[in-house]
Amino acid sequence: MAGFFSWKLHGDGKTLEQNEVVAPDERLSWLRTTGIGLQHIIAMFGATFLVPVLTGFPATTTLFFSAISTLLFLLITRNKVPSYLGSSFAFISPVVAAKAGSIGAALFGIVCVGVLLAIVGLIVMRVGAGWINKLMPAPVTGVIVALIGFNLAPTAFSNFMSNPLLATITIVSIILIMSLSKGIIGRLAILIGVVIGYVAAAFMGVIDFAPVIAADWVGLPEFQTPLVDFSVLLMFLPVVLVLIAENIGHVKSVASMTGKNLDKSMGHALFADGIGTALAGAGGGSGTTTYAENIGVMAATRVYSTAAYWIAGAGALVLSLCPKFGAVINLIPWSVLGGVCFVLYGMIGMLGVRIWVENKVDFTNNINMLTGAIPLVMSIAGFTMVFNGVAIDRVSGEVLRELGIFALYADHFANPELAGGIIVGPIATASVAALVIYHLMRALYRLRGMDTGDAQPEEVQAATNANTLEDTK
Q1: Residues forming beta bridges with residue 374, ordered by sequence position
Q2: Of 359, 388, 391, 441, which one is least surrounded by beta carbons within 10 A?
Q3: In a domain, 427, yes or no
Q4: Pairing relation of β-strands 260-261 and 470-471?
């Protein structure tokens, strides 16, 4: 086990050239690695806390299981896939709808999603990820990664508009630090930008530190247990597709950024997230997913060391057990987080574009063009499908009106009403659309004897072949 927690020191551990990459099995000095880990905590914090705020779950409980799930993920993937497991937005709608019955029923739905995802992971571990690569080639994977980032744009904008001045100060600080600083300071631009925004908010009198003074130093989260209720399953099952897409997109994004073939770790990643989600539901927390926000941090810093994620997970665990420290972090204004998310969510979207570029996806081919175009618009618009649903007031939980057997709901999470019933959210809807459009158009092209665009120059085939990536042992 000692070797498991051993990372090679990258260079002298202090200096980094502009385009230098720190691999998952490497680390910087522990002081600098800790700084990167703190950035990951900041990156996941806003969204991880936003989910329990919207669903009514205890925030510290969600954070506790988020930390435990992250540490389990690193163990199960054997430190090969850098990732933080935060609260998944895909659970918001079914949880709110299920809570109309009881919070225990909602937790049962989360547990079932986790178990099913873990089973999918076991299947991938057994038979390999080849079928996933055929199901989700570069044109599809690129759009799924991109839409995960761009779908979060309304959340970033909503937080931004809570105080546009503070959000702008944060964004400008990050841009200036990235542009003017070399080495590790530039890599810590996001964390430093948050600190600058926090200090500016304090000087502007936006922050009330009374909750920090009143909070205890040590305290356990509030745990709850699920209640078996099979009637909620139809509301939760679509979430599995979202988690599969997010996990696969995450693994492929990390593989693209690090140049390592992580296909053998895909099943482990799915299994680990499934276990984390099931564990969270069993104890009163929200379901987890590999966090897109933290991909943005890796893209900005080019530090993929799993050591930083161990620090992030351990730090989040301490945070969940320390109400006073949690109160300090919880006072980060939403506008500051909004400024950070403008940067991170945009980077996530551009990572999808990067997958297209690096795999030389041909957009003169209508199959690839429509596979990207339609799902991206659906995702950005918040295109949501609701079956046999009702409109529920977000605050009171009161049923406002019935939506009928089938309804389309745009900008679902930004709307003051949440639609109960069987809900397929924007990421799941757009991901399914990408898969259907790509494979349906290819089948129709072949039926008509048309060229699907599979024939590529030798150098392009080499670039798209997963074997060209460095294989992880």
Answers
A1: none
A2: 388
A3: no
A4: parallel
